[in-house]
Amino acid sequence: MTESTTELPDLAEIVRIPSPAPHPQALAHDGESLWLGSWETGHFYGINPKNGNVFEQFPSPGKPVGATCVGDELRCVVSEGGDEDHRRIRRYVPGHGFKLRESIACPDDTGSFVACDGKRLWLSQRFNKRILELDSEGKPVRTIDAGEEILGLVWVGARLYISTWLGRERGGSHIAYIEPSLAAPQLNVVAHSPFAGVALAYDGERLWTNDFKDNAIVAFAIPA
């Protein structure tokens, strides 16, 4: 699968708020609050998206990589073991933190961003350039090749929106979507990001991403 690009519009940025910690990485939105994991501090934060105030923070058992909401809880991809970088999916309960006795190993010990379609988790593998649909035990039941490195993903209706990285020489970061219900999903590129958009979240109206280098969280309109 390859990206088909014409002249792309830039992201229609709506809101930019400072990250509560350096190097914002994981990001999710539960309809009211933002949830963010910092690669540098190794903490997970609950944030009021209206003013950026932190109302909760807990340490992670490793570096938080990706996150998604599953009902009233979250599922987070965590890099554990320092340089060994073992990737696991862990359960986070707001108000309580991570459930350290519960985890699922990522297939092939690799995974970055995670999204939930309401029933199942979908896990991206950045350098394998693919997305895995997982069963309840974390086993892959379907693989979709994206053809590009993946910096984030989130479900919006029947579409799985993806932040891709093409490298500086090919245009940097793009926002695209696929429709996994199709027999042969294609990557539809809809916008260019002037910064590397790390992680994607959906608040019911807008998409959110992290400007990793600028230590900011950015909301933008869903590209047409």
The tally of helices reads 0
Low-confidence stretches: 1-5
Structural class label: mainly beta
Q: Spatial order of the strands in the main sheet? A: 1-20-19-18
According to DSSP, the number of beta strands is: 20
In CATH, the homologous superfamily goes by the name YVTN repeat-like/Quinoprotein amine dehydrogenase
* Average pLDDT score: 94
Largest sheet: 4 strands, antiparallel
Order of helices and strands: EEEEEEEEEEEEEEEEEEEE
Instruction: Tell me the distance between the termini.
Output: 21 Å
Write down the Rg: 16 Å
Strand content: over 45%
Tell me which CATH architecture applies here: 7 Propeller
Q: What is this structure's SSE topology?
A:
Layout: E1 13-18, E2 24-29, E3 34-38, E4 43-47, E5 54-59, E6 63-70, E7 73-80, E8 86-93, E9 97-105, E10 114-116, E11 121-125, E12 130-134, E13 140-145, E14 149-156, E15 159-165, E16 173-178, E17 188-193, E18 197-202, E19 206-211, E20 216-221
Antiparallel strand pairs: 1-20, 2-3, 3-4, 4-5, 6-7, 7-8, 8-9, 10-11, 11-12, 12-13, 14-15, 15-16, 16-17, 18-19, 19-20
